[in-house]
Write a structure and sequence with these properties.
Helix content of chain A: 40-55%
Largest interface: A-B, 42 and 42 residues
Order of helices and strands of chain A: EEEEHEEHHHHHHEEHHHH
Oligomer: homohexamer
Radius of gyration of chain A: 25 Å
Number of helices of chain A: 11
Shape of chain A: elongated
Number of strands of chain A: 8
Strand content of chain A: 15-25%
Structural class of chain A: alpha+beta
Largest sheet of chain A: 6 strands, mixed
Distance between the termini of chain A: 57 Å
Chain lengths: 339, 339, 339, 339, 339, 339
């Protein structure tokens, strides 16, 4: 069976009555009964901007296939007529099969089903690398930091920063990290100037490298599933704080094996930044920041995450009036005011 | 009795055997007994850089006056010969009287006995006013902010930022606040750019004005005593958070009475920044930051205070080796390393 | 359109089939669909003791007006027939318009829609003033306290003590404060007798005045909305603890401007009582009670609030058996027993 | 050896040079060395109002006996000459032996060495019993309460309320309990009036009986040792909260055995008052107050203990100025003010 | 009316269409209305392994009796035809009456309706007594421990260990306590060997007896109700920790009265084990473990309860994938893995 | 200069007047002044069982060398006469030089200066390996566990388990770990039997291997310094929990490189045991125990550490009477009793 004969379109762009091939993600399959006891399924499909939910009656041509094999969380290529009814938008499904890798040729891209950063991920990636090249003077620290970025460029472009608390969208990691790095650069310059007699002097290289790498363990902690960002098994049992330090150590070991070792003390301080960046044990930091570099990275990170949460709360909270409810990730009310 | 005949010098600059008039702060008066039961006093005097402690025996010419009237915490003008002995430096006191206001003519200045910021207070004050003029666009908010600074210029030049936890020296308030304001300006610009769709938009004026005024209540909470910065009664019972908001409100009321009222909503948001800048109830914030402006001021303030504490700990902790002790204001160890 | 022709009655007193004009508060408007997809509204109205909810079908004469303009939280004058049906009590609405100020002539009073204290507010107010007159010996403290009461008599008569945690009804402020004051008088007399050598002696005037004024900031923190007591913007961002102290200070400044200033020390101690009356930072006290007067007011207040909560829990908890559930404002079980 | 020949006096009333027999408590015995290496003892003795400390040189007549058998914490009858020297007051000991029970005939009373309530213990005891007789209407509850008091009258007269935190002196238990009971009576009357519809109604008998008995377990938890009030073994391992309930239950069982049982429900509620009177688990309450009676007793108790602590802090804190230090049992500063 | 004519069967073993007498527990009675407004009842009945829910229409022969007297939580003897319908399994009730004590002759046993331990309660009871006989060397401690077991054998066989947190089923007390005792025996042997010089030596008798008796107060704290294990009034107001100690003391007093007293010190230490076995005040321990014996019993108990909770979570959590949700009694996620 | 001419003895075995060569650790060097102002040094030396402290006067032959180069924390070979004086034991030093590696030939062993386990370290090591061989069925898990032990045999023999909180002596690691492993074996057997239907089944191999390896990171966290066990830099900044997991991962990677990889799931679960063994974030666990294996290892570890602390407190607390003070690592009182 091939679906190729007619144009591939986006579900969210179909018009009433239009027939087309669309790539969709199944989001719902629920077995229900009619008043007179006949079983049917309520199903749902979506792309990034539109979701449809409708019944598949027991006498529909797709009923048996629906019952037997359709699975929420799976991508499908569907040929269907799109109808807007009194009961909301529906699909009259003609043909359906699971999406496959080869569908990429027709524009199928799982990432397209995800919410994404408003900034271009590739541009952010390049800006991040540029800052490292410019602001990390120590050759080995620079090399290690760049290697960790470039070795994982593809995954980093779509990695979220968290599952839901903040920046939980494609490109969220880069958006968050780039912002943290910019604050870190500002802090490093500022406080190196304020306290030139700090002993040992503030290692600005490490502030920048630490800001870039503080969350790198998210690469192992998180993964995209069709239904959104989720924790890997090792992410749940070990966590990105430890896994990020693993990646730093493994990369450093690799460089050392090639005869380009990092200075021991710098490596230890860099690991410590990763380990301590969440500051409090109950926030997941095995050690609190014990160096000036770690303290600066913590504050740059913490503010950026909190400000993003605040932004989302003000944007999304449905409570009318000047104040939001306190049912949000920060568990307090915020003030919108009369603005 | 006048002491004017010979030159006024600084205690810390006297040489062995030199006789001079010096202004000193009495730091110690302790009644002791010799082995054979005769009472004597151990006394101490200092200026900003040298302290001397020595006995006043019961048969010394000054013994009776010492016993009767000398009081620790008092400034004295003393004519004395300075001697370096096996028991340490001593003063052979010839004449002594309390310092008086008129001694200013001879260079007496209580502020000279205090530790002070390494930055020039007048320069910092001007820089702070300059930032307000440049970065606070709203005329009334700018006026209020500047008025609070200029009306208290004299006290602000010597005000510390705290009694001991951070910036506990003359000019410490300005050093801390100027640094907080610079971070606040950076944050305001950065996050206004990141989230142009924040609703209502970030009020950058208030971020700057709030950063300038967040600690203004220290003017009422703290006072210099000869022995160092101390809490006033109202500071202990009410606290600078509430007292700072009082000053903002009183000044706003004064401007309103002159026909130049602040916008109600802006004033409320500004008061809230002052009220919430310490974030947690147990840190003294009656309300947590509930606006984007308040959140930014809190982070700028918190980081600056913590970094200064860290700097002092690394500078002052006497523990040998790579790690400090945990006996410090942050109650944790810090790492100096091999640097 | 005028509704005046027939008698104005109370919704809660209508009998089945009776037609009347009633003043009601709209509490609900929900857009639903019938089984066959036709939209209709479910609406609700209430007075202080009866609530009715019923459908407005799409072909009802009021359907269009309902859809377009009826708004929950609005008071209406309604001419309707009251019917008790199988689906509960309903109104057959003939005419409807928003209630207006002039309706006061027909007995319209928003306060009548609120739950209210079982005690007469005016009597409580007078009793409170009487205690102040009798028990506050210092002329200026007495004057300030009475002025704050009498200047706000009208609002105080209907002010609740909180939005929901305790005494959240019209007159609740007076009921709570009067009870607190009585305990405070008892404590002041008792402990002044027990510890006559306390230095400085217990200032019984301040215990009484502080008890009267501890919650006065509720006047600025809370407001009545049709749906019940709610926080004002400034109440949310600043809070009644600070706002109450503002009122004390403003009144004291006014008296001082008229040449009748309070003693500074007494004013400071009075402000401190207001500031500290909730005792713990996490309960909203910027400072803990630091004087004997503040400690007594705190206990009188805390017990009265907690006992009222306990009373409400025992009255309202629906759990059968000897024990209540722990789903209440004090988050613990209470024991009713076999009583 | 008999010391009877000369008058028995109080140490604190001896005059310089006077010889007398005194009863004293040994408070100190320390082995020291002179500069040239000879061992001697520094010893101390006191009565309730004067303490003397002095050396017993190795060649003194009492040196050997001192070394061998004198024991701090022991009461002695001493014949000595009292001398005020440059090194402070001393005793020139002529004869010394341990105090014995028979010394009571000469006025020896260990209780006299203890700090004691300023109120007469016997009067307080009678007042307490009077309140029980008058205010506890239920015959069985009254009987149980009175029996617990009268069966332990002797110990109760000298029992402290705690080892050090509050009322840690002879008669302290009665002073504290009587005060708690008076507040409890006030609360019971007041809140029974306020909430006549409480269901089940407030049991005022239990409020009074519970207030009387809440700390009765101190009889088993505490004991007087020569050096002051101390915990018994069972007090440390079990605690007065549980031990007080034991006493209530044992007494109730005794009455039941005599055919005068308490109502089961009343007994359970009374036990619960004892169990919960410290309210929080971390303060030692296995259960929080779950009845109105228990809540009232808790507040009466808590305020009385805290107010006494505050009184002692204001009386004893040595810090000069308007504020105390925070080194006290309540770990916060208090304000004395300019009073 | 007698139901005896036909065989008594188990509800859970009935087949479609079978008529039988069954003992059932009523679990639900809800008054509802049909679409056309006619009232009917939805009722539910169950035995240990099957539950049926069905309507009793207003014209059914049992309708009036259902409305008037059937009560959820009551056991009934029912004669009915069992039918499996499209709407689930139903009972067509012919006769019904409350179960009575005499029904025991026909096999009626309330305990049969409860979830129960997979281990035979009588066997566990005997094993527990056997361990006491073998491992408690002190005659009096052994006697007290055995007496407490054997005096309550009947209730102990069905007692749960808690209402829901762990081992909340018939026999759960024995299952939990036997497991705790086995760990305690292991700990006692092991640590007595490791630290033979502990002073005073570890009292292994008390470790075993304390493990056996640590939860004995559950006999007074909990009771079986038809709907499951529940707290008694005294359990809620006093709690099993105190009630268990009561039972130990009462039994010891009884033995003492018979001339077989326990050693005071042993009894005190045994009481302390019961009092402290939950270790933290917020977990219900008035005192923390202060003896080696108490520490060992705490750990044996705590691990056994936690491991059982973990077992139930892994068994019951419905979340798909490698991780459970955190909605469980331990409020954290657990890992099932790929196993 | 050679000291070889006379016998090498142990400081703690010297008799009054004996001259000998001894290896000692310098513990103290303090510069003091005599009454008449002459500087001298007070110095201290010890071996494992005796410490001597005495003055080195400014005219002593060793005075200059003492002042210039002797350093506390250094091992010395000293030729001296041992004297017991009125001022305590002293050394009359004739010759002194730093100890060197070659002194091992004369029996010099830094480990001999440390407190040590009462158990033979080599025997414990062998027993530990024996348990692994016998109780870890999975070949690869067994291999990894044994490799980590045998690769570090030498250091493990003297490694302490902590710096001071528990088992802070040579061999302490082995004493603690062996005890934990024995409890873990008991738990694994017991709970595998109790819950045979646990899914996935309890992995007893991992319980044993996890117990053996839970603290293995102490090898990198701790080091012996002359003054006792101390934290390494990486121990302070990273900590043994993470470092132990590093060692497990590095060893697993090494085995994998040799073609003998562990099962991924087993490795992840093993890492998780190490990561979570301290359970609470504030105790240093980045993740809580999320598997049955991890829970068992945590309890075995926690009890063993706590019991050892309790043992030391009962042994060392100097408070007289039945109760210890609360000044100990567990910050609570313990009961010794009358035993």
């Amino acid at each position: 069976m091939t679906l190729k004969a007619i144009a591939v379109a986006a579900l969210s762009e179909l018009e009433n009555g239009q027939e087309a091939d669309v790539f969709v993600l199944m989001t719902l399959k629920e077995e229900l009964k009619t008043r007179d006891g006949k079983p049917y399924h309520k199903v749902g499909f979506r792309d990034a901007r539109r979701e449809v939910q409708f019944p598949v009656w027991s006498d529909a041509p797709t009923a048996e296939e629906c019952r037997r094999s359709w699975t929420p969380g799976t991508f499908y290529k569907v040929r269907a007529v799109y109808r807007e009814t009194n009961y909301g938008p529906q699909l009259d499904i003609r043909k359906i099969r699971e999406a496959i890798a080869a569908d990429a040729a027709d524009g199928f891209d799982p990432d397209a089903f995800r919410p994404r950063s408003k900034f271009d991920a590739a541009v952010m990636f390049d800006e991040l690398c540029g800052i490292v090249r410019e602001r990390v003077a120590d050759e080995r620290v620079r090399e290690l930091t760049l290697k960790l970025l470039t070795d994982h460029r593809t995954e980093l472009l779509t990695l979220p920063a968290a599952t839901k608390n903040h920046h939980g969208f494609s490109g969220g990691f880069l958006e968050h990290v780039l912002s943290v790095v910019k604050s870190a650069v500002f802090f490093a310059d500022k406080y190196a100037d304020y306290y030139p007699d700090l002993a040992p002097p503030l290692d600005k290289d490490l502030v920048v490298a630490g800001a870039v790498l503080h969350d790198i363990g998210k690469l192992r902690e998180l993964e995209w599933r069709p239904e959104g960002p989720a924790y890997t098994d090792s992410g749940s049992l070990i966590g990105h704080v430890l896994q990020g330090r693993d990646m730093v150590r493994e990369t450093a070991a690799g460089l050392a094996a090639e005869g380009r070792p990092l200075d021991d003390e710098k490596l230890l301080r860099l690991e410590h930044i990763v380990v301590s960046h969440q500051r409090l044990p109950e926030w997941g930091a095995p050690k609190p920041p014990m160096t000036p570099e770690a303290l600066l990275v913590h504050y740059a990170d913490d503010l950026d995450a909190k400000y993003h949460m605040l932004y989302c709360i003000l944007r999304d909270d449905p409570t009318p009036g000047a104040l939001t409810s306190k049912k949000n990730v920060l568990t307090q009310q915020f003030y919108r005011g009369k603005g």
